[in-house]
# Entry
Amino acid sequence: MSLMNIEKLNVYYGDVHIVWDVTFSVKEGDIVSIIGANGSGKSTMLKTISGLLRPTSGEIHFRDKTIHSLKTSAIVELGVVLIPEGRLIFPQMSVFENLEMGSYIRKAKEKRTESLNRVFNLFPILSERRHQLAGTLSGGEQQMLAIGRGLMSLPQVLMLDEISLGLAPNIVSQLFQTVTEINRGGTTILLVEQNVLHALKISHRGYVLENGRLVISGTGRELLEDPHTKRAYLGI
# Structure
């Protein structure tokens, strides 16, 4: 069953056409990856779904509700949450305060303690450093905090934008394992990622975005075996 449907989406930055007639769906319970080179429109897609950008045309539906004209806060309340590229934590606030900020909507406040326990189970280091200023954490720990803050909003769809960017390989592997664990817990994942091998290995389905257009789709395994994907993104 499709949880989210994107239909014939077109997005501009000023006069520049970034996303061209993109159509795809996200099934409930899946991990879905969007892969592509820098500048292909991947982050623009996530920002548009989250309400930070407005499409020029096309539609976005979440549980059969049209959301592309809603404010970002309303989209979050429905259960669609974006972890942006670059983490964007609050560096002068503690780890605990950052996590609290993720639970600002009413239903999330009601389950704040339960959500905190979940986040600390996923990322024990955050529990150890709950009183530490977020800006003093390592890059990997800050990415864990950004994901944890997103989980505090009780997402039904968690959108992750380049979570591996600038991190050591062992931290990247750990983060992808955690994403799989989050998905197994019932959260649908929409992942934008340049680390194509890691992304497709954990994905139920993937889409290749090039110059703002979807050019290939398939299961994660199919895309890993696709000649174009192997040549362009895996260096094989």
The CA atoms of residues 36 and 209 lie 5 Å apart.
